[in-house]
Amino acid sequence: MSLQEKLINDMKEAMKAKDALKLACIRQMRAKLQEASNAQPAGFEPDDAFVQNVITAYGKVIQKGIDELASVGTQGAELKAKYEAELLLIKAYLPELLSPEKTREIVIQAVATAGATAAKDLGKVMGEVMKTHKGLVDAGLVRQIAQELLG
């Protein structure tokens, strides 16, 4: 079953269960997916990788909202809780990120492969890692480890 089919099936289940939050979240993900698909050339058929990228981007938007609401304090607590629940639902459609230890191994290997020796080579290392492990590693962690290794 493709990721798109899973979204549709889960949306139907949420309707039957009258789970308003899950239904709204899935509808929003499907809307984002439709927007991204419409931006592609005619005849484009989204695959699971495309769907994951769209869902990941949406998750980042929600995470940013959570981070911003954290600074508001108790005024935004209700909305923050809603966003956190949505983020949990979103993460159910994404592969689990690799551990920090495994990510470090991948970055070390990428530094060697790219022949990186200084901080100016950060882009090469990031490109190497993201080319082969996009969606499986936290880009922020990759950047942090690469900066640490390259000085």
Total domain units: 2
DSSP summary, beta strand count: 0
Q: Report the mean per-residue pLDDT as an integer.
A: 89
Shape: globular
Classification by helices and strands: mainly alpha
Question: Please, how many helices?
Answer: 7
CATH topology of the largest domain: Hypothetical Protein Yqey, Chain: A, domain1
Which segments are poorly predicted (pLDDT under 50) over 5 or more consecutive residues?
none
CA(first)-CA(last) distance: 45 Å
Would you give an account of this structure?
The chain folds into two domains: 89 residues, Hypothetical Protein Yqey, Chain: A, domain1 (Orthogonal Bundle), CATH 1.10.1510.10; 51 residues, Arc Repressor Mutant, subunit A (Orthogonal Bundle). It is 74% helix and 0% strand. Helix 1 runs antiparallel to helix 2, helix 3 packs antiparallel against helix 4 and helix 5 crosses helix 7. The protein starts with a helix and ends with a helix.
